[in-house]
């Protein structure tokens, strides 16, 4: 579930009707009827609440997912925020971070309350202040407390207090609004309405935020700024829910379970504005209360007013000290619980990520940076498909539509967009380039770069939907005279694969898409392939930054359900590859149960017939220069025997990519 190009991008959106493209053979396979691939759900709706990958966790039996891809389409793929002005292609405009405009909440003032090679740095200089947002985005990626005072809230508030000093902690008096009542928006304004609609769809319909948002933005006809605000509010509220609920529990005077869910959504939206944006406090409260009044009722509006005023009495740091006190202090609590609240992750995910860092041989002290990276909006990254587009072409096209772009940090075919709608680039619209996380790009390119002797003509992608890596592999393979068979169990997602690879095979037969169960290919076609990709369905714990709601949906029990499916697919791949051929086992989760354990088992069970290749070296080869810190498991690591140092793990906080895991296995007999 690693590829964000997937989802709702212009080239692979499910609403294209899934028509066949010339040159793409849609093999019958053992079709969906047999495997119950299921109906294609409405865009944005989840097929299975327990599983975003289009399979049923417990049974391992796949099912069609409403989420075309692990990640959305361009922009949406990114978790939204960095792209802006979005069309459907972008999954909505991004929130525009304005480093230079951090600070004051305006009206709150006075009340006294209140790596690597070109990799990203923690100070993230990539985003200039465009000065055009009214999105009032988070001051820092993790939404930590604001300093400085240059920013008001643009048109968002009344202007009162803009440029005022940053809010300080502690209770004090508050003037709620300087606007005349007639000037205030009664319903919260269109951006908040859209944001609330997203929260409602996520809660009631199990929708994916990145898929429902574009349609809601279009329907509401928001201009770019309001669209950016709506996107930031929706995504930020979903990500920050853990902390916001802890604050609300303190302020609401009743257990949150007793608060009506629609009202709770609106309260979270209000808290997000108060604690993580530069929206002035008075505007955050009055607009959110207006929204509650018009959407839910006058009584709930009064309740929201009382609760949000209490929230507004302190700033984020003060609330953190209250609800997530540092250990060692008088109220210091358990580290996991503190990190869970402070960085808004379920405690089991915090534990899982800590375990993952240790298992892959990294310093456990990196945990907080990793959690913070999960809360930062990822950049939109494009992959220029070899033979169809070049990074230089993408940079030139971005310049033509006044988008800032930079070369990728790692992948030789990557271009990073600072903001904007990737669908504005002709190459993206034509399917010659695609939004795809750099980690996903490197994983596919590493398989293509793995050393191989003898025949190298038949490539296989065993779990291909929605087709991001298949599209890249197909393009690379076409340049080397290799054909690709792409297998996907979900009918709907198989159609997305066809769309994804269409540009690579306009009239040829280099790519064949089959709707089938990948676990059966090994038995049906033993030893038939030279290179095989298993991008296994997984928990997606390495891509939380792209899927704001995912962390609240996943359960620890998902791990147990996914294990047999992951092992079954890897077994099938190892049977389908010829002796001497290479299998890449890839996940967008660093969890040891989905990565090192699966690979370690496979190597152990096949005693001597399968060997691990040097995946970090293959990543370096794919990148064209060293990608530091990918070797997964040093001498002290706890990874299973036989995997140490041979597998590769990328990290959001270290590489600026999703946390992709890559193992390369060669069948030796
Ligand atoms: C992680 S996603 C693959 C992402 C894809 N490689 C990309 O880059 O766009 C895993 C895919 O495996 C599919 N899948 C699940 N079980 C499967 C099975 N038994 N056989 C084939 N595909 C399966 C899911 O429907 C999902 O589309």
UniProtKB/TrEMBL annotation:
Residues covered by the SAM-dependent MTase RsmB/NOP-type domain: 370-668
Active site per database record: 588 (nucleophile)
RNA-binding as UniProt keyword: yes
Region: Disordered, residue numbers: 1-191, 622-648
UniProt entry keywords in alphabetical sequence: Methyltransferase, RNA-binding, S-adenosyl-L-methionine, Transferase
Gene3D superfamilies: NusB-like (1.10.940.10), Vaccinia Virus protein VP39 (3.40.50.150)
Gly residues: compositionally biased ranges: 69-94, 101-113, 149-162
Residues binding S-adenosyl-L-methionine: 463-469, 488, 517, 535
Keyword tRNA processing attached: no
Compositional bias (Low complexity): 59-68, 134-148, 163-173
Start-end of Basic and acidic residues biased regions: 45-56, 124-133
Pfam family, one: NusB
Annotated Polar residues bias: 175-185
Family classification: Belongs to the class I-like SAM-binding methyltransferase superfamily. RsmB/NOP family.
Protein name in UniProt: Transcription antitermination factor NusB
């Amino acid at each position: 579930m690693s590829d964000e190009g997937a989802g709702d991008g212009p080239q692979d959106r499910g609403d294209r009707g899934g028509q066949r493209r010339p040159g793409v053979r849609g093999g019958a396979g053992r079709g969906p009827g047999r495997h119950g691939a299921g109906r294609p759900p409405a865009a944005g709706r989840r097929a299975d609440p327990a599983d975003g990958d289009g399979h049923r966790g417990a049974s391992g039996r796949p099912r069609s997912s409403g989420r075309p891809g692990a990640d959305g389409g361009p922009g949406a793929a990114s978790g939204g925020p960095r792209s802006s002005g979005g069309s459907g292609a972008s999954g909505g405009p991004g929130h525009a971070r304005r480093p230079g405009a951090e600070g004051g909440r305006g009206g709150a003032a006075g009340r006294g309350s209140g790596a690597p090679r070109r990799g990203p740095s923690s100070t993230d200089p990539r985003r200039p202040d465009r000065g055009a947002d009214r999105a009032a985005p988070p001051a820092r990626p993790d939404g930590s407390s604001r300093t400085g005072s240059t920013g008001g809230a643009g048109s968002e508030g009344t202007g009162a207090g803009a440029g005022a000093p940053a809010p300080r902690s502690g209770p004090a008096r508050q003037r709620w609004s300087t606007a005349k009542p007639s000037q205030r928006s009664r319903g919260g304004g269109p951006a908040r309405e859209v944001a609330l609609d997203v929260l409602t769809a996520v809660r009631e319909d199990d929708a994916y935020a990145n898929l429902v948002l574009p349609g809601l933005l279009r329907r509401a006809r928001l201009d770019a700024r309001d669209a950016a605000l709506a996107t930031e509010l929706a995504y930020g509220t979903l990500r920050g829910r853990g902390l916001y609920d802890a604050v609300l529990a303190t302020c609401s005077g009743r257990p949150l379970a007793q608060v009506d869910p629609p009202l709770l959504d609106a309260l979270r939206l209000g808290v997000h504005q108060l604690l993580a944006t530069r929206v002035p406090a008075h505007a955050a409260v009055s607009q959110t209360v207006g929204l509650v009044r018009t959407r839910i009722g006058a009584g709930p509006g009064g309740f929201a007013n009382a609760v949000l005023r209490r929230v507004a009495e302190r700033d984020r740091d003060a609330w953190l000290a209250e609800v997530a006190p540092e250990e060692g202090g008088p109220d210091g609590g358990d580290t996991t619980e503190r990190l869970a609240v402070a960085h808004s992750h379920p405690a089991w995910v915090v534990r899982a990520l800590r375990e993952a860092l240790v298992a892959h041989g990294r310093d456990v002290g990196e945990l907080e940076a990793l959690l913070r990276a999960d809360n930062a909006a990822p950049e939109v990254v494009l992959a220029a498909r070899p033979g169809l587009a070049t990074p230089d072409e993408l940079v030139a096209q971005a310049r033509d539509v006044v988008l800032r772009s930079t070369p990728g940090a790692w992948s030789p075919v990557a271009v990073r967009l600072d903001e904007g709608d990737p669908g504005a680039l002709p190459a993206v619209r034509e399917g010659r380039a695609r939004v795809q996380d750099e980690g996903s790009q490197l994983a596919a390119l590493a398989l293509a770069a793995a050393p191989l002797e003898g025949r190298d003509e038949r490539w296989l992608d065993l779990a291909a939907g929605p087709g991001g890596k298949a599209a890249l592999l197909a393009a690379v393979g076409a340049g080397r005279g290799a054909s690709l068979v792409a297998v996907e169990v979900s009918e709907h997602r198989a159609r997305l694969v066809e769309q994804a690879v269409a540009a690579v095979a306009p009239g040829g037969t280099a790519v064949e898409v089959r709707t089938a169960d990948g676990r059966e290919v090994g038995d049906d076609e033993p030893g038939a392939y030279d290179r095989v990709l298993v991008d296994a369905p997984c928990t997606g714990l390495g891509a939380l930054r792209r899927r704001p709601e995912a962390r609240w949906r996943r359960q620890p029990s998902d791990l147990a359900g996914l294990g047999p499916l992951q092992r079954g697919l890897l077994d099938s791949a190892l049977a389908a590859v010829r002796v001497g051929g290479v299998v890449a086992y890839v996940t967008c989760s660093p969890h040891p149960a989905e990565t090192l354990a699966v690979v370690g088992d496979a190597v152990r069970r096949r005693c001597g017939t399968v060997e691990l290749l040097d995946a970090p070296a293959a990543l370096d080869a794919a990148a064209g220069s060293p990608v530091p810190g990918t070797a997964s498991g040093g001498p002290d690591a706890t990874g299973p025997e036989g995997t140490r140092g041979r597998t590769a793990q990328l990290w959001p906080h270290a590489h600026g990519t999703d946390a992709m895991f890559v193992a390369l296995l060669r069948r030796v007999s």
